[in-house]
Amino acid sequence: MLGKVFKAYDIRATYPKPLNEKLAWQIGYGSAQYLTQQAAEAGHDDPMMRHLVVGRDMRLSSPDLVTALKQGIRDFGAHVIDVGLVDTPFIYFAINYLGCCGGIQTTASHNPANYNGFKISKMHAKPVGQMTGLDDIRRFAAIADRDKVKAADGREEIRDLWDAYREHVHNFLHPSIRDGSTTIHVAIDASNGMAGTMVPKLFNDVPGLKLSKLNFDNSTGEFVHEPNPLVEANLEQLRERVRNTDAQLGICFDGDADRCMVVDEQAGIIGCDLLTAWLTRGFLAESPKSSIVYDLRSSRILPEMILAEGGEPVRSRVGHVFMKQKMAEHEAVFGGELSGHFYFRDNFYADSGAIAFASVVSALVEDSVPLSEQIAPLRTYAQSGEINFETEDKEVALDDLKRAYPGANVDELDGITLEVDGWWCNVRASNTEPLLRLNLEGPDVETVEQRVADVSKYLGKRVAH
Prior knowledge:
The chain is of the alpha/beta class. It has 16 helices and 23 strands.
């Protein structure tokens, strides 16, 4: 069953089959073995390096799964610090704040309510993915047998770190919002997920924030709409709330509140690449000449904006594992991904939905012009959005595409990126499905539509969105 729940970047599956308490115990045991081993090999002998931070989301299966997970950790001989019902970025903060060897969040992020899983981080909240430890954890978990293990009786304690987390996040809030000399009206859709806990804990009594709330009840573990803000249909309630109020922007979080999407005061959806470009100015004003990391699907306006503001643009493969690696390698002040993950140097190079929210409202303070007008100059190019194709042989399809454009500039950082006569496209294979994902950009809508039609011939059957 372990083979069915371990994915490229985390552990995730339907509950109770194939993911259940038996596997959760094994995963806890294997994670404790791997994370404490990593700390020891790095020469860390601090007693805290045998502690793991553990949290959970609001899903109905999370309490039982996290109980089994913690028992596995303790049976190995590591110690648990349970921080309770929290958003996933809380775990990244807690690992660094307490100086632990790692942490685990029990969550299935944006998946439906019958899913659950685990997101694992090591020291300094560095991500654990397939090539950065997840395969080792799977191997350790596979040979852990609860009936044969002599329990080592690790300790467990409960810690409330919300005050410290709040102070950390508020470092990213503009002073005039904190003291109430400026007021920003924000519509927030918590998607019945962990933002329903996080937002009240961090932002309810901030003097300069007027919050119009949607879908904040996460007590049932169910969702009014799918907790995935990348799907346009899931933003409709938020957009309607913005249209019917004087909100200056709207923000929608995913299930575990590590990702978000923003709409402007006219309810127009802002792509995360454009949002990253817009936020770039503020981060580079505070940290001149710094690097900013972006995923390679992003509009070309983003690196152009970074250069114009005196920064260094750094392209990354898609995925939080690769984005965080690039952030740390280049000591980048900020990074953004099309999926709605935003990364911050002063947040241990990790992503945070709460800090993204704080950064967006703070940037809005700096200019009295409505958000839609601030974003408008960045809509320089036409974009296709991500289009999926079903194909039996992804490698053959990519080779056919390359041969079709022999004069193109090609790079293969992640899938293939072709640049041809003023337009470009990236085609990547899905890690989990028999799909190819196309993103294409050109100077105008007509060019994009024509080039999408041309490129599609090589990629298989187009999947309806």
